[in-house]
Amino acid sequence: MSKFTVPDRVLYICTGSKCAKRGGKDAYKAANSYRKVLPRKVSLEVIRIECTDRCEHAPVCTFQPGNIWLKEYKLKHIIALIDELGEEKAT
Ligand code: FES
Q1: Structure confidence at residue 22 (pLDDT)
Q2: Of the candidates 33, 34, 32, 36, the residue with the CA atom closest to the CA atom of residue 46
Q3: What are phi and psi of 72, to 5 degrees?
Q4: Which helix (H) or strand (E) holds 14?
Q5: How far does the centroid of ligand 1 lie from the alpha carbon of residue 14, in Å?
Q6: Residue 45 in contact with residue 7, Cβ under 8 Å?
Q7: Mean pLDDT of 10-22
Q8: Is the pLDDT of residue 90 over 70?
C-alpha cells in the first residue's frame, strides 16, 4: 500500500440535480476558481459530489475536517468560510 498527498481541507459541493438547479454547480466552479488564488499555505481542494439525500435543503455542501455543513447557502457564505479557514491556517 502506498500513500499519496492529501489536502488539509476539502470542500465537497453537491452538484446533484436539485442542488445544481439552486446554485450548486455555479458554486462549485466559483469556489474552485477562488481556491486557486488563495495563499499557498491554505491547502484546500474543492470536490463536487452527487446527491447527499438532503435535497430539501439544497444547495448543500460540507467542509472536512470539522464536519461543517451548509444548507441553502449563497456563494458569499462559501467564500466567507474559505476565508475563515485561511485565516485559521495563517495563525
Ligand atoms: S441534489 Fe444535493 S442533496 Fe440532493
Answers
A1: 97
A2: 32
A3: 45, 40
A4: strand 9-14
A5: 6
A6: yes
A7: 98
A8: no
pLDDT tens sequence across 76-85: 999 998 888 7
pTM of this prediction exceeds 0.85? yes
Q: Are 63 and 47 in contact (CB under 8 A)?
A: no
From 18, 22, 25, give the residue whose CB has the most ligand 1 atoms within 8 Å, as the site to mutate. 18
Q: Give 23-26's long-range contacts (Cβ < 8 A, gap of 24+).
A: 23/59, 23/74, 23/75, 24/58, 24/59, 24/60, 24/61, 26/75
Enumerate residues 6+ apart whose C-beta is below 8 A from 18. Answer: 51, 55, 58, 59
Ligand 1 atom nearest residue 17's Cα: 1
Q: Tell me the mean pLDDT in the region 25-52.
A: 91
Q: What DSSP designation does 87 have?
A: H
Give CA–CA dist 66/80, Å, rounded: 16
